[in-house]
Design a protein that fits this description.
It contains eight helices and six strands, in the order H-E-H-E-E-E-H-H-E-H-H-E-H-H. It is of the alpha+beta class. The chain has two domains: about 35 residues; about 180 residues, no CATH class. Strands 1, 2, 3, 4, 5 and 6 form a six-stranded antiparallel β-sheet that branches. Strand 2 and strand 3 form a beta hairpin. The chain starts with a helix and ends with a helix.
C-alpha cells in the first residue's frame, strides 16, 4: 500500500508538471501573437537584468532569483514600452527548521514617458490603508470623494500628485481596470500581484498612456524646461 501511495503521488506530480508546461506554451503563443499584432518584439527567454534597468521600482527588487520572461518590447503611440512576466523567490522556515521556497509571479508594463517624472504611486485602497488612515497615516486625498475612496496615492511632493492627477485622470482611473501604478524617473509602470491576461497588457498600455497624455501643458513645460 505505501508503494501505491508513492506511485500515485509521483503520477500526480507528473500530471501537474505536464499541465504547467502546456499552460506555459499556450501563454507564450498568446503573448507572441499579441506582441506581433502591436509590432512588438517577443522573447520567452529569462532576463535577469530588469531590476537594474529600472532600479526605481521596488516591485522589481523583491526577493532573490529575480528574472523577467515573455518580454515584449516596442513602441506605443511613439513611446518605448516593455511588458513582461516577472518572477522572484522568498524563503521561510517551518517549525522543524526546514527552509521553504516561495515562488512569486506577476506581470508588468513599463512606458518611457520621455519626461523627467517625480515619484508617485497610485493603487487601489485596501482595508489596511483605511485602518492606517484612521490612526493618522493619511494618503493624499483629492476633491473627488469617489477617487479618494477607491485609490491610495502617495508622493513625497503632494503638489506633484495634484498636478499629475487632474480631474480627467481621476475619471480615467475610475473607469479603467485596476493596476498598481508608479511614476519614477522617465518611466511609469503598471503591475499587479498576479500575471496579466493578454487583455490586461493592452489595458495597462492604455492606462499609462492615458496618464501621460493628460499631464497638463503647464506641467510638461515645467518638467521639460521648454
Amino acid at each position: 500500500m505505501p508503494g501505491l501511495f508513492f506511485v500515485g503521488v509521483a503520477v500526480l506530480i507528473v500530471i501537474i508538471l505536464v499541465f504547467n508546461i502546456i499552460q506555459g506554451q499556450k501563454r507564450r503563443k498568446e503573448l507572441m501573437a499579441w506582441a506581433a499584432s502591436n509590432g512588438f518584439s517577443f522573447s520567452p527567454e529569462k532576463d535577469a537584468g530588469m531590476d537594474e534597468r529600472f532600479p526605481g521600482f521596488a516591485c522589481l527588487r523583491k526577493g532573490s532569483r529575480r528574472y523577467a520572461c515573455n518580454c515584449m518590447r516596442g513602441r506605443y503611440h511613439e513611446r518605448r514600452c516593455t511588458g513582461f512576466d516577472y518572477h522572484y523567490e522568498t524563503y521561510s522556515t517551518d517549525s522543524k527548521g526546514h527552509r521553504q521556497t516561495h515562488h512569486h509571479n506577476f506581470s508588468a508594463m513599463i512606458i518611457d514617458s520621455g519626461y523627467r517624472l517625480k515619484p508617485l504611486s497610485i493603487r487601489s485602497e485596501g482595508l489596511f490603508d483605511k485602518l492606517t488612515e484612521f490612526i493618522g497615516f493619511d494618503d493624499i486625498d483629492f476633491e473627488s470623494a469617489e477617487f479618494s475612496r477607491e485609490f491610495y496615492v502617495k508622493a513625497p511632493d503632494k503638489r506633484w500628485a495634484y498636478d499629475v492627477i487632474q480631474q480627467s485622470t481621476m475619471e480615467l482611473l475610475l473607469a479603467s481596470p485596476r493596476f498598481s501604478l508608479e511614476l519614477q524617473d522617465r518611466y511609469c509602470i503598471a503591475y499587479r500581484s498576479s500575471r496579466f491576461s493578454v487583455q490586461d497588457f493592452q489595458a495597462a498600455l492604455e492606462v499609462i498612456e492615458g496618464i501621460i497624455t493628460r499631464l497638463p501643458f503647464s506641467l510638461v513645460k515645467e518638467i521639460t524646461g521648454e
